[in-house]
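Notes from the 1:1 (GR / supervisor)

We went over the backlog. Supervisor wanted to see one worked example end to end before approving the batch request, so GR pasted a single chain during the call. The sequence is below; no edits were made to it. Supervisor asked that the structure be written out right there so they could see what the output format looks like.
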Amino acid sequence: MIVALFEYYSTAVVTPTTALQQEQAPNTSSSLNVNDPNHISIRSSSTQIKSPAGSSSGGDDSRAVAAMNKDKDNSTQNRSVSMVDMYIDNSEPSENVGQIHFSLEYDFQNTTLILKVIQGKELPAKDLSGTSDPYVRVTLLPDKKHRLETKIKRRTLNPRWNETFYFEGFPVQKLQSRILHLHVFDYDRFSRDDSIGECGELLCSLCYHPSNSILTLTLVKARNLKAKDINGKSDPYTKVWLQFGDKRIEKRKTPIFKCNLNPHFNESFSFNVPWEKIRECSLDVMVMDFDNIGRNELIGRILLAGKNGSGASETKHWQDMISKPRQTIVQWHRLKPE
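Structure output shown during the call:
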């Protein structure tokens, strides 16, 4: 039996930390570049990965990219692939989102991906008792219908699951287009289970018209926003800054949507940006929770930019806009906590 083993810590939501897929570009989210190897050996790792912020290597969330090197032995014609490095976002989180410890194995002989969910550490408290009832939901995207779940661990912020899941009948070529998504929830007997660690997602579009130098951002909607108020809701609005380097130039805001975790903004903002400056500017998009009394809180944010976006998804969105002028490019993005 030939097995590849990969073990490490990650934030409570892993997206898409462990896709076995072909690298398409330097910013490709976590991938193991494997092309029919007879043997894979992967350096074991137990690295703590902080929640994404600023220049995270992936959209959504926290990411780890395994860069692979292929060597060929001319005498034996054996192929081997070994991991030479792992790129990890080590930026400090703005708040605790917790961590999960898991391992991945791939059995080439039986074409089976083996996931072991080991434990959680320092998960956020979701219940009034100051604890949570956490479990992990596992999906192999893009298939969302067939999902697996660990057992619920009662009243703990440091659960030990030690559960193993098998994804059988997945040759390497098929796994190259799949994304393994681990999502931690807090079980609630009387209402909807709460997400632990995620800030939500934002659907937006970008369009640039070189003829009149107009950059248009349309904020369509958000979903699964993090609840910031004691009623389990938020009062979200979105604030957008046009930036050149670190200098903020122009600000726009959407209306406030009261008690809503899935707001439909349907708001467009246009900015005057000359063509020669379009690669140097960026849009800092912040989803905020309005507060009548205290300070408004950040729910999550993304940085749309051609060079140093908040993730591969945000950078690609900007580059697609530039390469396809006058076209509206629509894309979902995972919000980052900072």
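Supervisor's comment: The CA atoms of residues 205 and 330 lie 4 Å apart.
Batch request approved.
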